[in-house]
Amino acid sequence: MRHGKKFNHLGRTASHRKAMLSNMACSLIEHKRITTTVAKAKALRGVVEPLITKSKTDSTHSRRLVFKALGNKYAVTELFREIAPKVADRPGGYTRIIKTGTRQGDNAEMCLIELVDFNEIYGAGEAKKTTRRSRRGGKSGAAKTAPKAAAETKKEEEE
């Protein structure tokens, strides 16, 4: 029975699961977005988000804790230098999971897991602010009504 077992074991032994999630966390930190199955992405979110929170305080102790979980000094450096300053004011929710459909081979649900502050698509929409403009008036409105006015005057001349 699996009473009280809260996390997904992903069909792997504890050591395999730990190694796989560590490698996936390193890849996510390095590339800022990866494609994986939904189950693995949800398990990865539980590993990566506490590490990003630890990286907000740049101390020797927090670096050692993060290195213990990741095992990759380049990923630790990237996390503390690039990611931590960008998410410093965010109180959690550093990752986003976007479902992309199913995998053709085994019909597994696939998704894209990414770091929220490193997405250029969503960030571009927020940064660019436009004003609402009326459809009436302006140069384009005058250009559209000019041909109609010319046609009406032509009609009056013929009569």
Question: Would you kindly provide a brief summary of this structure?
Answer:
The chain is α+β, with helices and mostly antiparallel strands and 159 residues long. The chain is built from 6 helices and 3 strands. It is elongated, with a radius of gyration of 27 Å.
Your description of this structure?
This protein has 159 residues and is an alpha+beta fold. The protein has 6 helices and 3 strands. Strands 1-3-2 form a 3-stranded antiparallel sheet. Helix 3 crosses helix 4. It starts with 13 loop residues before the first helix and ends with a helix.
Structural key phrases:
159 residues; alpha+beta; three-stranded antiparallel β-sheet; 6 helices; 57% helix; 13% strand; elongated
Mean pLDDT: 86
Radius of gyration: 27 Å
Strand order of the largest sheet: 1-3-2
Series of H and E elements: HEHHHEEHH
Main pleated-sheet profile = 3 strands, antiparallel
Helix content: 55-70%
In percent terms, what proportion of residues is strand? 5-15%
Q: In terms of per-residue confidence, which ranges show pLDDT below 50 for 5 or more consecutive residues? A: none
Helical stretch count? 6
Instruction: Give the class from helix and strand content and strand pairing.
Output: alpha+beta
What would you call the shape? elongated
Distance between the first and last residues' Cα = 95 Å
Give the strand tally. 3
